[in-house]
Amino acid sequence: MHELSDYDCVLRRGTEAGGEEHVPVQLKELPPTRVDPDLDFGAMFRKLGKYVDSEDLVVALYVNRRISKCDLDSLLVSKPRLRELWILGATSPAERQGGQEWSIVGSVTRPPKARVTCRFTYPDVNASDEGT
After folding, report:
1. What is the value of pTM for the model shown?
2. What rounded mean pLDDT belongs to the chain?
3. Under DSSP, is residue 26 helix (H, G, I), strand (E, B) or coil?
4. Maximum Cα–Cα distance for the chain, whole Å?
């Protein structure tokens, strides 16, 4: 099978001006170390360099391994030519009582103060099932 495009899906989102836009999204995964022990954040970011003409592309990177700390700015020495790069993953063990903590950080290609971080618990055992 041959890929014809550098994205997996197209999402529609609102603009600040109140309009709509369609955004191509490429989904990536940093697999567990037992699957690929040689692939790390640095190698993954270098792989993003293949998207040389993708200034409209948004990449969502799922981190499927435990990471204690990561200095994104040192890894992004040469920033990929992407519209946005979002990183998501669990920040607590799955066995945690009350649900697993997750974080989404984006866009990491922006300066640190311009990035958005969203933290949430899944499943949220305190959430109400009313209305569903």
Report:
1. 0.79
2. 81
3. strand
4. 48
